[in-house]
Amino acid sequence: MEKEDGLPDKLVGRLVSHLKRHLLWDSLLIFFPPLVVFFYVGVFLYRSALIPQQALIFAAAIAVGVAWLMAILRYRPMAPTARLAARLIDDRVQGKDRFVTLATIDPAAFASFLVARLRHEAAGLLHRTDLRKDFPYRLKRSFFASLIGSLVSVLLFHLILEIGPYFAPRGPAGKELALIARELSRVPRFSELARSVEALAVRLREPGRSSQERSLIQNALAKVEAQLAAEQAQGGSLRALLSRAADALRGLEQGDDGSQEEKAGGGLKSNLPEQGGDRRKAGQGGEGEGEAGVTLSDSKDPQGGKSAEKGTQEAGKRGAGKEQGLGDRPGKDKEKRSDIGGMAKGEVQGKGTKDQGEEIPRGATPDRFLQPGEQAEKGVKGARFVSVQLPEEEAGGSMGEGRSGKGRGLRPKVPVSNVPLRRPDSPGVPSEKQPLPLEYRALIR
Amino acid sequence: MELEKFRDLFDLLEAEIKKIIVGHEEVVRKTLIAFFAGGHVLLEGVPGLGKTLLIKCMSRALGLSFKRVQFTPDLMPSDIVGTQVLTEGDGRREFHFKKGPIFAQVILADEINRATPKTQSAVLEAMEERQVTVFGESYPLESPFMLLATQNPIELEGTYPLPEAQLDRFFFKLMVSSPSPEELREILHRTTGAGSNEATRVLPDNGAELISEMKRLLRQVIIAPPIEDYVVRLVHATQPTGHKGGAAVSEVKEYLRFGSSPRGAQAIILGAKGNALAEGRVHVSYEDIESVLYPSLRHRLILNFQAEAENIGPDQILAAVIKKVPRD
After folding, report:
1. What is the domain range of residue B300?
2. Is residue B175 part of a domain?
3. Based on C-alpha coordinates, what's the Rg of chain A?
4. What is the C-alpha separation between A385 and A305, in angstroms, rounded?
5. Do B220 and A110 touch (CB under 8 A)?
6. Among A234, A348, B157, B226, which is most exposed with the fewest C-beta within 10 angstroms?
7. In whole angstroms, what is the distance from residue A409 CA to residue A398 CA?
8. Closest Cα to residue A358, out of A271, A433, A424, A267?
């Protein structure tokens, strides 16, 4: 009988432990989805080489600590008391507050025979409850709210990742290349490739671009493309990474051309917005000849080349087309003129890779440039660019103007190069052909 | 005393009274609870509902001396407590105290609100101190002592409503309602036939001793601290200004001038203990508290003019209090 009389107190104690476990689970589960999201974001950023491994580990440790602390802070004030547990048992077994009374009284303050009787009565009700059945664990609404909030956070994170680059300013030219190199270095079979890309990225951090760096870019691009082709043939899972590397190198290669021409002061800057998925589109360039001339480039296939670039070029076309439409308005024309002037002053130093929203007309050099005022046989229908060959005297008069932005000479009417123009077909010479949107035709005349 | 013995005696008393009184189970039970808790009861109901009969039956069943005082406007205090009378014997004249009806163990103060306040106050000392003082000399009352007063809610002309101080001395105020048709049929059957209409004594010869043991047991009943806290919250909730100027229950704020005194809380706890014993338990539950809340507090709430105008009674306010005060 004495043994039986101790059971009500034990049952209350067991229920308290049971409820404490429930509460602990609740607290942990509330903070679990945000923690998972945090890890996911961390690993994502790490795999994208945006954060180093040490930072990831440190942040993960801090996050686990904070989540644990929050769970404890939530758990402590809500920890169930014996009184609460006793009340729950009373409700369950219809104990008429026997368990509450037993759990809260000081037995010494009451007649022992009455307390013993109360314990006995409570013990007689124990068979009416089973803690596991009557108090099962159920996921609380707070957990579901946390889960939904976390999922929304993940979606927002990806959304920001997608749209962020359209708003965020770009970093230096070699930065992305360095990040890609770091990602590549995690794959053992790409370690050599990673080293060469990393070396290139280091060199690109220094201002100025020599022909040696350009050849390095071309070499790296060739390696990456070869690797990409091999990967595609094998159906490997790292095609996306290699494609990114190839895009970045291609962008640098083309941007390098642009920046080289900017250095020469002959580049015309377009204010076209970026279109399509490729952020690394080519810069503008001009092609110099001994005498002034104009040629038209067909927009149908300005690249005349690689299928891999086709999508990029198509997107570029769309952007250019849009811009051209806008250009019909006088206000827009004015804007563009001021843009040209700004470029001539070199205010946009280093934008060779950044503002590459226009496609570069490629293809064979025309047999002959049109003379000023001369009309093309087919007119300008279907053409999107005119390539302008600047006269030597104009080029010579623009010394000091250009990329550095510190020129002291008179501002030319049209942007001109500050380097002697060479024949475009001479080896190792960057293209100096300047794609010029049609709306600038008036300038040329 | 064992719980079983208490319960047996209580059940016997209840059954004996119910032999005479038809219906009014709650009134009978609460009256017995008040008796064992050592309190006095104010019964309110229209004439002819059996209030006086109930009290007579109870005193008879308990085997206690019983006196009835019909309160009228010309009733004097000395008519209740007694007076000094001059007696002559052995050639000497002496004043002797002649005890009044208050010296019985069970007193029925019938229509107590018809006497003047001066007379009404004559029973105050007896109710609280269990003694009366006449010409500077105190006379203890017999134990157990219980005063049961009745008052008529109608015919209020020429009455003197009991002062708050006196109302507060009543443990319970019980409302005697009209019988249902079935009860009325049973009343007619019992009272118009040839059968006896008198209760018999239930308690043995040592009844006073037993009663005192039962009273002791009632005070030993276990009450948990959370339940005591609940009583405290309930009583505080009847204060129109709230606890420490805090917000009170809106009905209380709107319709009460004054809330319950600490005597109200004492009455709730003792009444709840009696209720628990009557139900065969040795501990007080929340239900016990709520079952005795109305008789314990309804006469301790002082209504304001708005409540009178809107015909709001204390029971409605107490219902709101129970509803709005949480148990935990």
Report:
1. 221-324
2. yes
3. 36
4. 17
5. yes
6. B157
7. 7
8. A271
Name every chain B residue with its beta carbon within 8 A of the beta carbon of A89: none
Geometric angle at alpha carbon B293, from B288 and B295, rounded to 5°:
115
Phi then psi dihedrals of residue A252, to 5 deg: -65, -40
- C-alpha span between A184 and A200 (Å, rounded): 14
Show me where the domains of chain A are located: 2-164, 173-444
Q: How far apart are the first and last CA of chain B?
A: 33
Using alpha carbons, list the distances in angstroms from residue B119 to A208, A322, B97, B116, B156.
117, 108, 18, 5, 18
CA distance B281 to chain A (A): 8
Residues B28 and B147 reside in one and the same domain: yes
Query: To which H or E segment does residue A231 belong?
Result: helix A211-234
Q: Is residue B275 located within the same domain as residue B147?
A: no
Query: Cα separation of B44 and B31, whole Å?
Result: 13
Closest CA to A261 of A412, A437, A421: A421
Q: Does residue B50 share a domain with residue B111?
A: yes
How many structural domains is chain B composed of?
A: 2
Do B67 and B117 lie in one domain? The reply is yes
Task: Return the sign of the alpha-carbon dihedral for residues B178, B180, B185, B189.
Answer: negative
Indicate the pairing of strand B106-110 with strand B146-151.
parallel
Q: Is residue B89 part of a domain?
A: no
Tokens of B315: 């029971």
User: What is the nearest CA distance from A95 to chain B, expressed in angstroms?
Assistant: 9
No. of H helices and E strands in chain A? 16, 3
Classify residue B263: in a domain, yes or no: yes
Q: Is B158 exposed, middle or buried (0-12, 13-18, 19+ CB in 10 A)?
A: exposed
Nearest residue of chain B to residue A96 (CA atoms) = B285
B287/A105 Cβ within 8 A: no
pTM, entire model: 0.62
What are the CA-CA distances from residue B284 to residues A118, A166, B99 (Å)?
A: 11, 72, 40
Question: Which residue from B7, B2, B33, B278 is spatially nearest to A111, judged by alpha carbons?
Answer: B2
- Using a CB-CB cut-off of 8 Å, the residues of chain B touching A103 are 224
Shared-domain flag, residues B210 and B230: no
Cα–Cα distance, B156 to A427 (Å, whole number): 126
- Which ipTM value was assigned to this complex? 0.84
Question: What values do phi and psi take at B134, rounded to 5?
Answer: -125, 125
Residue B113 lies in a domain: yes
What CATH number is attached to the domain comprising B256?
1.10.8.80
Are B17 and B158 contained in the same domain? Answer: yes
pLDDT tens series, chain B, 328 aa: 688 889 899 999 999 998 888 888 899 999 999 999 999 999 998 888 888 888 888 988 988 899 999 999 999 999 999 988 888 888 888 888 889 999 999 999 988 989 998 888 888 888 888 898 888 888 999 888 999 999 888 777 888 888 888 899 999 999 998 888 998 888 888 888 777 777 788 888 778 888 999 999 999 999 999 999 999 999 999 988 866 655 578 889 889 999 999 999 999 999 999 999 999 999 999 999 999 999 999 999 999 999 989 989 999 999 999 999 988 7
What token pair was written down for A187? 């794959």
Residues B56 and B135 in one domain: yes
B277 and B172, same domain (yes or no): no
Give me the phi and psi of B326, to 5 degrees please: -75, 150
CATH number at residue B167: 3.40.50.300
Is some CB atom of chain B closer than 8 A to the CB atom of A117?
Answer: yes
DSSP-assigned beta bridge partners for residue A386: A296, A436
Comparing alpha-carbon positions, the chain A residue that sits nearest to B286 is: A97
Inspect the interface and report whether the beta carbons of B227 and A105 lie closer than 8 Å. Answer: no
